[in-house]
Amino acid sequence: MKKIILVFLIFTTSIILSQDKKFGIFNPYKIGFLYNKAQDNNFLFDDDNYLYATNSYKAQFFYKLGTWKKLDFEISVQPQVQTLKHQLFNKYFVLESEENYEEKRTEFTQLKDMHLYAFELGFILKKKILTKLDFQATIGLGVASISKRTERLAKGFTFIENGSLGLSYQTTKKTFLYIGSNIGHVSNFDTQKPNNGFNIVGYEIGLSYLLK
Question: What is the pTM of this model?
Answer without folding.
Answer: 0.86
